[in-house]
Structure formats: C-alpha cells, structure tokens
Amino acid sequence: MKNDKEVNKQEFLFDKVNYKILLIGIAVIAFGFILMSGGGSDDPNVFNEDIFNFRRIRLAPTTVLIGFGITIYAILKNPKKSNQ
C-alpha cells in the first residue's frame, strides 16, 4: 500500500517558473489595456482626436499581443525538459 504522504501529495500542472512567466504575461496584457483606455470626450457633440494617437492605435495593441505571446509561451513551456 502507498504511504499517506504519497497519496496526499498534490502535483501542480505547471512548474513554478511557468506560473511566474504566466503572471508576467497577464500583467503585460493588463498594461496594454490600460494604455488603450481614455481619450473620450465628455461632450458627445465634440470630437476628440486623441482616440487616434500612436499610443492607442499602435502601442497598446502591440503590447497586448506581446502579452498574449508571453502567456502562450508560459503554457507551452515544458518544465520537465528544462530540469534535465
């Protein structure tokens, strides 16, 4: 029979490094969405050109895509190969 410690030992799906990379990717995605926010006008009759600036059109979506790339890498990274 197996020992009680062996039965109760829970094994995580990912390694500790994978979770760190995953959290970094999620933080980069959140930062991209923060960059995308704002730029609206309080008056609906006034058009604000700030919604078409470089930060909201190019920088923020690129940051979000980089964050998605980081999270995909964290999911696909095999911790067993790096330990050997």
Protein described:
The mean pLDDT is 85. The chain is 64% helix and 0% strand. The radius of gyration is 21 Å and the shape is elongated. The protein is mainly α and 84 residues long. The chain has four helices and no strands. It has one domain. It comes from Flavobacterium agrisoli. Keywords: Membrane, Transmembrane, Transmembrane helix. This is DUF3098 domain-containing protein.
Offer a few descriptive terms.
mainly alpha
List the helices and strands and how they pair.
Layout lengths: L3 H5 L7 H21 L17 H23 L2 H5 L1
Distance between the termini: 30 Å
**Count of β-strands:** 0
Helix content: 55-70%
Largest sheet: none
Short description:
Keywords: Membrane, Transmembrane, Transmembrane helix. The protein is an all-alpha fold and 84 residues long.
